[in-house]
């Protein structure tokens, strides 16, 4: 029987073998697949790697990642107990937003990651990952609210980077994050 970690490695190898988004791959240092526990009860999904993530090969290691780590710590969690990934696995040039076709190309691989991990809760960080998994919602109206779709519970959250550019968002994000333990406890 293959382990979850081995299955995740197969998905990662599949992305490379199938040459997903070759123009993004050509401009990136490396694939940034995901980080954390394959047995996590919660998966956080951002949009795409930035400069720090591209150089280190890990998601959320820059300023937004430090804030994410702070918020995790605030609810008694750390990176080792959760799983963190992005919808797009290569850094877009100049940190531009991922294009719809890039998100679409990576979506089956993200869905495969979620199928392996089987988290109780999927927290989308920002509108790009939310739009990919929960199309038609507006983050300004649904952030911090748990929603069940096709048996999976999702919780849209603002992207941690939003708090870096807009100080008023910081408390909103912290307040939304503080709901996570109760949401996890309530999921059967």
Structural commentary:
A hairpin with a 2-residue loop joins strand 5 and strand 6 (152-157). The chain has helices at 4-17, 22-27, 51-56, 63-74, 100-117, 127-133, 139-142, 160-165, 167-177, 180-186; strands at 35-36, 42-46, 83-86, 121-125, 147-149, 152-157. The chain is built from ten helices and six strands; from the N terminus they run ααββααβαβααββααα. The chain has a single domain (4-186), classed as Uracil-DNA glycosylase-like domain (Uracil-DNA Glycosylase, subunit E).
How far apart are the termini? Answer: 26 Å
State the share of residues found in helices, binned by percent: 40-55%
Per DSSP E runs of 2 or more residues, the count of β-strands stands at: 6
What amount of the residues lies in strands?
5-15%
Large-scale geometry: globular
Strand order of the largest sheet: 1-3-2-4-6-5
Return the CATH architecture.
Answer: 3-Layer(aba) Sandwich
Radius of gyration (CA) equals: 15 Å
**Would you tell me the overall average pLDDT?**
95
Count helical runs. Answer: 10
SSE pattern: HHEEHHEHEHHEEHHH
* SS content category: alpha/beta
Provide the number of structural domains.
1
* Uncertain residue ranges: none
> What's the level 1 CATH class?
Alpha Beta
- Biggest β-sheet: count, sense, barrel? 6 strands, mixed
- CATH topology: the name is Uracil-DNA Glycosylase, subunit E
**What is the assigned CATH homologous superfamily?**
Uracil-DNA glycosylase-like domain
